[in-house]
Write a structure and sequence with these properties.
Order of helices and strands: EEEEEEEEEEHEEEEE
Structural class: mainly beta
Shape: globular
Largest sheet: 5 strands, antiparallel
Oligomer: single chain
Helix content: under 10%
Amino acid sequence: ARADFPGNITLERCYGSLRKLCAETAPGIAAVNCPGTTELPQWGVKITCTPVEKGLRPVGTVVVRSRLPGDEMRLPGGTKSLKKLFIDRKLPASQRPLIPVLVDDGGVLGVCGIGADLDRLTQTGVEIQIQEI
């Protein structure tokens, strides 16, 4: 639940607490060099793609973006939408657009802080490491 107040103040109930929201917007879409290293200061991350024996197999261009409706991925517990994954992990709604999602032409590859889509792992591919900068 959110409420707007005079003076551009927005308060949000966040899992039992009340907090003031800052006007943060999603950093946008950014291409990732794969293989290679890409620094994305707007996302606050550095992404390194290294060829490995068993890893992710990107299809087309790899980009970082925010979650979109319909995005889903498979983890050891099964396939879930990113919306449900974020809710299950109790990530505040205001912070969800700021979480980097790696995608390619085939869909979601992985989500920063959650992991890789198990359906996208192959015998030869790339390892993708995401570090905060």
